[in-house]
Amino acid sequence: MALWLVVATAVFLRFYRLDAPYLWADEMYSVLSAVKPLDLLLRSTLSISDNSPYFYLLLKAVSACGFSDFALRFPFALAGVATVYALYRVVAPRLGQAAALAAAGYLAVSPYHIWASRQTRPYVLMLPLFVWALELLAAGLADRARFRPWALALANAGLMALHYLGLLVVAAEGVAVAAFALGDLRRRWRTAAWFAGASLVGALPVLPFLVSFLGRKETGLQADTLAAAAETALSAVALVASPTGTLAGFWPFAAVAAVGAWRLARRDARLAALLGLVVAVPVAALLVMRSGRTVWPIYFLFMLGPAAMVFGAALGTRGRWRAPAALVVAVATLAAGGAFFARHRADFYEGVNGYAAAIFHFASFKDVARKLPALIDASQLTTVSESLFREGVSWYLDRFTTPNPLVRQGLAPGETVGRFNFLTSGNDFAHLGHDEAEVFARLGRPERVVRDREFTLYTFAYPRQDALRVEATPFTAVLGTDPGAVCRQAHALRDLAIHPFWGYGLVATRRGQPGSLEYVLENQAAGDRHSIQVWFRFANEAPGNRLRCEYAFDDEAPVALLESLGKDPRSAFAATIRRDRPYRRLAIRFLLRVDTDEERPNLAVLRTLQLKETRLAVCAADEESDCAQWLYTSTLPQGFVDTALPGQRTLGEDNLAVEPADAAGFATVSPVDAGRPGSLTVAVGAAGPGTLFFPRLCGPNASLQVLRQEPDGGFRELFAMKSPPSGCTPVGLQCPLDLGPAGQADSVLRFMLYGRGAQLARRQGDVLFHLGSQAGQAALSKP
């Protein structure tokens, strides 16, 4: 009767409202890993995971019974209850029924064991395996005839497969076996050999993944001092062992445990030494490694087995077991369970998941997903501040609503207003800004702000145009991927999201879910023959991805411009579309689909395929070269570089006026007489890649040539540039000059400036500058 009261307490504390707390960050990562295809799961654990795949394979089998929170957590809660009962059965024959009941009661109300039993993480599964291994090891050390090495190998294989921390436990067992064997080597060497062989066999399935993990282990995770590592590890052990889950509660327990250890040593010295070693060795190993990574108390959950045994040894008595005493222990357990429930009801049973929030603070994925469908829909764009936050909310949205507005989102043709939603938890604004004020400065004032206890949702509204109107040629357009530009300029968008990091970019909303973006040019310009220049930046970083760019005039069939399949070294693409007959509309479409089987850290697989900005130029057929030049120069980097190319000297200049230098020392030269060109002749020493100069052209008649002197004394055109169709080229435009490989003979260059709007930047007489060979090649690579 007393035992079943203890078990009933354990059942209630582990199963009551098991599905109320949301799946927190680690649980969500586990579930998302488990639902991956088997081949991808195995590859990802070899490349990025901090654990072997066996726990995720177990969770994959569990998910066959359903994906509700209760179904996913049910086996772990059941394992927690079973461990309470199993601990009683293991302890009773060795220490008596009183000690066994006290040990079971201690485990039944342990805060960390209750929490571990209510989540989809491997730690609660390690404890019964550890208790089983202790029983097998204790039996084998006491009587060699009772040693079952292959049963121990199975238990230890389970420990190591569930988590790499199991390796420390097996190492602790090995230390204990070695210590006992040395005391009587002649009789016990076979036991030690069997243990070593069985443990090695049990470790074989884990070794490939462990070797991969150690090979990519970060080096910056060590603590500065041994004292810092000791404080971290010992605090974690104390919190796990404490019956209240606090450091304050540890000290009364430590006093009782000291009594229990003393009584246990008097009764069974070998078992007491074994328990001491299996607790001390893992802690000592962490101290030797000086682990600076946060060591969470949950990592030491397996130590609750030895802790429960010494606790039971302190309270238990040998001799006849009396029913009143048993009832007292059971009632005390029931009272402790009731006190725990009253104290931790909000943390454990009301959806808050307070223990998890103390480790990783995310909003409740479940609560956000329940509220979000009333605030956003599939006709809007929605971006989430953090990838795991997005995945967690999306997991629940798949179960609460159809369609999932984080997956099915977009902009429909004909809408006059485009809306962009930014969902964040806390003060995380990704790369949109450091704070709310900076976000508003970049994106404008929001149409709506919804502030909830769990999240904040900002909604920005932008006027839309159904098409880009080409009223005259030349026509140019820069089509960005920031929220405002997408909402204003896109004709249609489907199942793509704006990635809020590293300068924006459009990404697919889900692996295997195709997304599309379409721009439409409405032709109102005169002339039948047009040349349309298309340039865009993209990133296709993983095999299996697909990016397609196509165009279609009016109702004609689409024509492909680009088909990027798999990992693509290019970062930009340019093409020319030529039309020799009238048309009303030109549609340019981008199709993105992420099908890579490659895994990335932090669930960042979607950003392996991104579409960046697009630039378009529409010109009459006879202006094609001018449009191509504008497109090229518009993609060059900007900014003055003050590292002058060495060895240059001015040989002569004509018809040039010099304007005063700015604060950085850069002056500009331009023609005095607009009716004839200005010229500047420069001798240049040996130069390699990365050579550049800074022209600026304004007005319809401004242009520039760079001529190079040939061996026969004549000059050949090396570079030519005209002013853009409207406005000016940017200040500090970095124009590259290809002067051949480094070490080539000296050159004589002549810069010809036509029109008063043609300018050339000069600093202390130098007009040529250098980025350095590697930086220059990277920054000045042509699209």
How would you describe this structure to a colleague?
Helix content is 42%, strand content 21%. It has 783 residues and is α+β, with helices and mostly antiparallel strands. α6 packs parallel to α17 (323-349) and α8 runs parallel beside α10 (165-183). The protein is elongated, with a radius of gyration of 36 Å.
Number of helices: 24
How many E strands? 29
The geometry reads as: elongated
Low-confidence stretches: 773-783
User: Compute the gyration radius: what is it?
Assistant: 36 Å
Summarize the topology:
Elements: H1 2-15, H2 25-34, H3 38-47, H4 54-62, H5 69-95, H6 97-108, H7 111-117, H8 123-142, H9 149-162, H10 165-183, H11 185-203, H12 207-215, H13 226-241, H14 247-267, H15 269-289, H16 304-315, H17 323-349, H18 354-359, H19 365-371, E1 381-384, H20 387-400, E2 410-411, E3 417-424, H21 436-443, E4 448-451, E5 456-463, E6 468-470, E7 475-479, H22 483-489, E8 492-494, E9 496-498, E10 506-508, E11 515-523, E12 530-540, E13 546-553, E14 559-565, E15 572-579, E16 585-593, E17 609-620, H23 624-634, E18 649-654, E19 656-658, E20 666-671, E21 678-684, E22 691-693, E23 695-697, E24 703-709, E25 715-722, E26 735-736, E27 747-754, E28 758-763, E29 769-770, H24 773-779
Parallel strand pairs: 1-3, 6-11
Antiparallel strand pairs: 2-8, 3-5, 4-5, 7-17, 8-11, 9-10, 11-16, 12-15, 12-17, 13-14, 13-16, 18-21, 19-20, 20-28, 21-27, 22-26, 22-29, 23-28, 24-25, 24-27
